[in-house]
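User: quick one, fold this
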Amino acid sequence: MQQITARMLLLALVLVTGLGFSCNKTNQAGSGGGGTVSSGGNALQPNPATDFSFKTTGGQTQTTAQYLGKPLVVNFWADW
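Assistant:
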């Protein structure tokens, strides 16, 4: 019984190792290196966020228009 368990464990280890190597395998065909990547003129243009207002923890009303042209991180939280 112990011998069967050891064989199963060894087989599982070999399978997991093989799976790990196959998942991390890199594409060797296109690894010429030294080149540059061009977007080909198909770059996405950013869309402006919808203007909305919100209250700060201090009770002041702010709008997203106040941050036009500046980076803004909006973090939505829910406590359910």
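User: anything notable?
Assistant: Strands lie at 53-55, 61-63.
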